[in-house]
Structures are given as C-alpha cells and as structure tokens.
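Project standup — Tuesday

K.O.: blocked on the structure for the chain from last sprint. Re-posting the sequence here as requested.
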Amino acid sequence: MPVLPVPKRLGAALLAAALLYGAGGLPAAAADEPGWTAGPASGRPGAARPYFYLAGTPGAVLEDRLALENTSDRERTVTLRGADAYNTADGAFAVRPARESSGAGAWISFGGTATVRIPPRTRAVVPFTVTVPPASSPGDHPAAVVATEDGREAGVRVHLRVSGPTLAALTVEDVAVRGEGAAAVVAYTLVNRGNVALAPELAIRADGRFGEVPGRTARALPVELLPGQRVELAEPWPGAPVFDRVALTVTVTAPGAAPATASASAWFVPWGVAALTGAGLLLLGGTATAALLLVRNRRTPGGRPPPAPAAAPVREPHHELTGASR
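H.V.: unblocked you, prediction finished:
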C-alpha cells in the first residue's frame, strides 16, 4: 500500500518527498518502523492504486476511500486532513499546511472520521468526499490527503479535474549558462500558464562561432509542473566548449502544448591560458617601452647631451668693381 510516513518536525518540504505523483506514482517506502500505512482503498485484492483520481463538474460531490493499515502491535490514532499541492522552487511536489489550504485541499472532508483509531494488526477504510464549488474553474486542482500520527505524516496524491475547457501552455524563461567545462549547466525557468498539469521535455541546441557544439537531445524532465506554478531548474551540459562563443536555444515541449523556446549566449574562455597570455603580452609591452625610453634618453659619458654640430661660416657677398667712375 503506497505510503511514505515522514517526521512532522521536518516540515512540508520533506513531506513533499513522501507524496505519490505522476502516472506511475513513486514506489512505496516506509520511515523507520512507522507502524502504519495509508493509501487509496481498492475494491479488488492486488489492484492497488498509487493515488486518487477524481473528476467531476462544478458543484459535484465526489467520493472515495482511504485505507489505513496498522501493522504494529499497539493501537494507532491517525488524524486526517486535505491539503493543497504545489511545486517548490526546484520543482518538487509539496503540500501546504492546513491553515494555508484554500483550494482543492479545503474541498476534502472526512466528516466525523477525521480522527481514526486503528486496533493492532487491523486495516480500516475511511470514506471521504470532495465537494467541488459551483464556481470552480475547469482544469486540474492538485491536492493530497495527509495522515498524521505521533509526529509522522503520510501524504497520498489526489488528482482532481474539474470538467470544462482545458489549456496546456508553458513558457521557458531566464536561460543562462553557469560554470564551465564538465561542470557547466544551463539554468532556466519553466512556467505553467495553462490549467492542467504538464510533463515537460527539454532539448538544448548550441551553435558555436568556431564549429559545431554538442547540445542535449530531448529528454523527459523529472518534474510534474502544476497549473500556475513556476520552477527554476538546471540541466547539466557536459558538451560545453573550452573556447568559443555559443548561442543556446532551449526548447521545452509537453503533451498538448505548443513548444516553448528561449535563447541565450555565452563566452567560454580558458581563463588560465588567457591569464598567461595576458601576462606575456604585458611583459613584451613593458620590454618594448623600456627599450624605446633607453634609446630616447641616451646621454654622453659626462651626463650631458652631445654638443650640436657647429654651423658653417656665412660668407659675405663679394662685389667686383669694373670700369671707371662715372
């Protein structure tokens, strides 16, 4: 039965790792001796569900059942609640505290069974309802059922879709290159601008000034991007060049959505070689300048500049007297 109990004191960030999400869900895992599990109840043996999936129109009241199993030798008291789900900044799936859940998490009700006592070695099935407000917008409304006992929490994902027009749309923004060489990464931001959850794929194209640069072929990202959410991700880029100016184009696709692209450029310079080259040029320039100054400032042995050459004597004009006086 899918459950991932998590110590409550670690907060919602670690509870996020315990939630089941995606088409196949996360594999079930247990905290140290949790003593109990939680997951969607199944009507048939062996037909386990990794999460709840509910769909209905605005104003509908939807029903499902949560299974709690006490695997320990003592009685357990488990408290149940609904919670809104969201993406953390790095794309992880997380749930909000009860006081901050005003969306689909607040639509979940366990009635008078929000606190359940489970005898040792016993399985309890708890019904709950999801009341969709009449003015609800169409599309996906991510939520979770959270079970708490003795400081431990287990979250089970709730896929809830309200009928009506759906829109799959996303954008990629803020593309930048960080690091160099084998440690280079392409950082970017994904934004879900539609009303359904998306499973994005990413591809990177790189065009260099000095030849072909390997990019990254399309691959699925380990993120489920929820409606209206923004996440900041980084993609390893082991094919980054050593010396080049590269134009990058990041393309993100998702089923039903138009491809989204964004571009950036980056210089790749081996700074160690550049520093040595610069030092050599500075040394050469200094040597040339010193030689020029030495030539221009040459002095005689006495320390005085050599005398200027003597000017040639100026000869007076000679007037020859011819003939007698008149």
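K.O.: great, moving the ticket to review. Residues 275 and 321 are 84 Å apart (CA to CA). The longest strand covers residues 76-87.
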